[in-house]
Write a structure and sequence with these properties.
With 513 residues, the chain is of the alpha/beta class. It is built from 16 helices and 26 strands. The strands form six sheets. Strands 2-1-11-10-12-13-14-15-16 form a nine-stranded mixed beta sheet. Strands 4-3-5-6-7 form a five-stranded parallel beta sheet, with helices on both faces. Strands 17, 18, 19, 20 and 21 form a five-stranded antiparallel beta sheet that branches.
């Protein structure tokens, strides 16, 4: 069994119901699978073989979903790249993976350095929207028959190379099998509401990241995936009302922008049944307006590139005012084992901070062509996540920071996420990030970067005073800078701390924790 067989077996029961909606376009389940079969035949006729790599550089669109399904059905390995990646980053992926085929949107493909491409890759290129310099996507579909390719694909065959967001510097690709996809489907179905043909899943966040995992449970239930090319708060809220959206994934940045939008309190959002969120910390006070407006809807999830979400989840019943567990990432799912390991590798005591280790069918096999990095994180069947956390008496897990983000100032460990959450509780703070910057005596000092909300007047002294009321002295930022523009983000919509650090640290001088 592979992920396509599992989902298609269910999806084809609802042949004439909508499967994908993309603004002014719509495909039924029958039409979707017909186009997937035609595309699979096109891939095979071009020369794509089982186990070879296909790179897709596409925005949120119908073609991104069709391509993924056709790639996996053909037994090839899916590599999807965020549309905002630079050509330099994409060229690095091409060198590393040696793709047999590339599919790209013509507008994004315009960023390509054709001379460098010719030197590093001879793979055919299929272009969406325009075939100048490549093969035409729609013409290939029209020229091939709607017949599955007949490639035998097993659970342990590689399905995807999923690249890390690059926040730690070097990009790495997690090798994910069809077994991981099947585990992801089971996990999604366990945390979402019971889905059926009435479900409409909104993809306003990038399909290249966590939102893409919702494609499969939606198709399996006979529901429809609704695709927006980019996230605009008012358009997303209008879409929820107009199409009666039931399900979506958001990162905290998107959730906050939705809550701040004027339409959040005027559009009819009563159709929403599950909104999963994760990827970064968010202050409980920032969540409160959302779960008061959308009671019994929010579900927090935690996962990684190397262990697809959810590894842990905090259910909708935990989202109420005053619940201290809102600061947690919930409990492990039914198919995961999670340990909190101390520095010696043993089990950390209750309440003690250690590294999260994960074991289960949703964990990667290895890093692509990187045995050294693989050995560093896969230990005796456990994945060392690099996330620091503690566990309470009831088994809830509280993530305090990434190991690499801990600031060591004067011998004290400062968990930056704790400081960031305190800063984000300030009513005049829209965004905040905390990093360590060089200090002659302490090694590092805690430095805050803040984007003010609206026209509120903030000062360094006011922010430091605010933090002193809430944090131990060694955790209080020693310096604060203000920005008028949003903080830089990765393709996964996480704050790009590495980019912010580079202004202060030569790469060779930054201590890695």
């Amino acid at each position: 069994m592979n992920i396509i067989e599992e989902v298609r077996r269910c999806s084809e029961l609802f042949a004439d119901l909508p499967a994908i909606l993309d603004r002014d376009r719509q495909e039924t389940h029958r039409e979707l699978w017909s186009r997937v079969d035609r595309l699979s035949q096109a891939f095979v006729s071009i020369g794509l073989r089982k186990g070879e790599r296909l790179i897709a550089w596409l925005p949120n669109c119908i073609e991104a979903i069709e391509c993924e399904l056709a790639c996996l059905q053909s037994g090839a390995v899916w590599i999807t790249l965020h549309q905002q990646m630079t050509w330099r980053e994409v060229a690095g992926v091409i060198r590393s993976t040696e793709p047999a085929l590339i599919v790209a949107h013509s507008e994004i493909w315009a960023k390509t350095d054709r001379r460098e491409l010719a030197a590093i890759c001879s793979a055919p290129v299929i272009l969406v929207e325009d075939d100048e310099g490549g093969l035409a996507y729609e013409r290939l579909i029209a020229e091939h028959d709607a017949i599955p390719p007949g490639v035998h694909v097993e659970e342990d065959d590689v399905a995807r190379l999923r690249y890390t967001s690059g926040t730690a510097g070097k990009m790495k690709a997690a090798v994910l099998t069809h077994r991981v996809y099947l585990a992801s489907l089971e996990l999604q179905q366990s945390v979402l509401h019971p889905m059926d043909t009435s479900d409409r899943t909104l993809h306003a966040a990038p399909l290249t990241h966590a939102s893409g995992a919702l494609i499969y449970p939606t198709l399996a239930a006979g529901g429809a995936n609704v695709v927006l090319p980019k996230f605009l708060p008012e358009e997303a809220l209008e879409t929820v009302e107009r199409l009666r959206i039931t399900t979506m994934f958001v990162v905290p940045t998107i959730l906050q922008r939705l809550a701040d939008a004027p339409g959040f309190h005027t559009w009819d959002l009563s159709s929403l049944r599950t909104v999963t969120y994760g990827g970064a910390p968010i202050a409980a006070e920032r969540l409160r307006p959302v779960f008061e407006r959308l009671p019994n809807v929010l579900v927090q999830i935690y996962g990684l590139t190397e262990a697809v979400h959810p590894v842990t989840s905090l259910g909708r019943e935990e989202h109420y005012a005053g619940n201290p567990r809102l600061a947690s990432a919930g409990k492990p799912t039914h198919i995961n084992e999670v340990r909190i390991a101390d520095e010696s590798g043993g089990e950390a005591a209750e309440g003690a901070v250690g590294e999260i280790l994960v074991r289960g069918p949703n964990v990667m096999t290895e890093y692509w062509r990187d045995p050294q990095e693989t050995a560093a994180v896969l230990r005796d069947g456990w994945l060392a996540t690099g996330d620091l956390a503690y566990r309470d008496a009831d088994g809830h897990i509280y993530i305090v920071d990434r190991k690499k983000d801990v600031v060591i100032s004067g011998g004290f460990n400062v968990y930056t996420s704790e400081v960031e959450l305190a800063l984000c509780e300030h009513p005049d703070v829209a965004e905040a990030v905390v990093i360590g910057i060089p200090h002659e005596d302490w090694g590092e000092q805690v430095h805050a970067i803040i984007v003010p909300r609206g026209a509120g007047a903030l000062s360094e002294a006011a922010i430091i005073g605010y933090c002193r009321e809430r944090l131990s002295p060694y955790k209080v930022p020693k310096s604060v800078e203000f920005r008028s523009e949003p903080l830089p983000k990765t393709g996964a919509a996480k704050i790009a701390k590495g980019e912010l650090r580079r202004r202060f640290w030569p790469e060779s001088d930054r201590q890695v924790h």
